[in-house]
Amino acid sequence: MNHEYFMNLAIKEAKKGIGKVNPNPLVGAVIVKDGKIISKGYHEFFGGRHAEIMAIDNAKKNNNDIKGATMYVTLEPCSHFGKTPPCAYRLVKEGFKEVYIGMLDPNPLVNGNGIKILRNNGIKVQYGILEKQIKELNEIFITYITKKRPYIALKFAMTLDGFIATKKYDSKWISNEKSRKFVHKLRNYYSSILVGSNTLIKDNPKLTCRLKNGRNPIRIILDEKGVFENKKLNIFDEKGRNIIFTKKIIKDSIKNTEIINEINIKEIIKILYQKNIDSILVEGGATVLSSFLKLNLVDKMHVFYSPKIIVNGVSPFRNITINSIRESIKFKCKKVKSIDDNVYWELEACLRE
């Protein structure tokens, strides 16, 4: 059997959970018997069925006999009681003959234990199939579990001469319409979105996901002086949660909004991790973008280059001082593509000491 072919199908299944499972991983499963696919499944939403269970349920719903079958699953089956019972024991109970796994679960509650349960019960196990692709698929989950902080991505549109706005903070629009539509896929992918007070007041953004069946990210605002108070802002009229970090003591409660008196970014990241927020899309402005870079708190950048020149403007890196090429902040290109007249770069941060 072509193990990579079936694992690729499991990866496609896993992607169906994007925007629904955070802070859990994206997981897909495929059941094969006598060389034929008899069922598929994926982790459907946080607290919902795991991929293995959904695949088993689908098989039984169609009266397929799964005893002696083979399962392909992107992530090691869980071995602990969480929101659902352990999948590893269910695979034993159902009589699977072989299980092929994409990657081990980095969660210390599972790591290697799921495989041990399967092998101790006579099931043949092999792991590491398409591991690189599956780790990329679960970059958010892996960072959240191993680094105990949210995965952090910056997003901005930039002119050819390196500006995200004019000197008067006009930025509508640097990117084209298709690029702006693509941004809503990012907002669905990441569980929260973060901006500073300048962006909040000057642009009055909605900070929503406008994809059909998409989810609004949790809106996080860094507003040291509390300038949002008593202002009519779009974020207060949209569905979803707001978390505002400020020094100012705010006495009045605001619908769907939590006020936290903290402005240190590293402490804010710890608070968001404790709230089970596994990922942040930082959308600006320049002060906020450069602050995350200075603190070495960036995992990825999504950059939309536009063929426009404005000569003088606001740089997303304006608060960073670098005196030599050797000191430069380095990224590697994961993806580059044209979106009409824009060029989109997906850049992954290189390790910094």
From TrEMBL:
Family annotation (InterPro entries): APOBEC/CMP_deaminase_Zn-bd, CMP_dCMP_dom, Cytidine_deaminase-like, DHFR-like_dom_sf, Eubact_RibD, RibD_C, RibDG_C, Riboflavin_Biosynth_HTPR
Pathway where it operates: Cofactor biosynthesis; riboflavin biosynthesis; 5-amino-6-(D-ribitylamino)uracil from GTP: step 2/4; Cofactor biosynthesis; riboflavin biosynthesis; 5-amino-6-(D-ribitylamino)uracil from GTP: step 3/4
Record-listed Zn(2+) binding positions: H50, C78, C87
SUPFAM superfamilies recorded: Cytidine deaminase-like, Dihydrofolate reductase-like
Protein keywords: Hydrolase, Metal-binding, Multifunctional enzyme, NADP, Oxidoreductase, Riboflavin biosynthesis, Zinc
The enzyme's E.C. designation: 3.5.4.26, 1.1.1.193
Residue sites binding NADP(+) per the record: A157, W173, T199, G285, A286, T287, V288, L289, S290, S291
Alphabetical list of PROSITE patterns matching this protein: CYT_DCMP_DEAMINASES_1 (PS00903), CYT_DCMP_DEAMINASES_2 (PS51747)
Family: In the N-terminal section; belongs to the cytidine and deoxycytidylate deaminase family.
Designated name of the protein: Riboflavin biosynthesis protein RibD
Source organism of this protein record: Marinitoga hydrogenitolerans (strain DSM 16785 / JCM 12826 / AT1271)
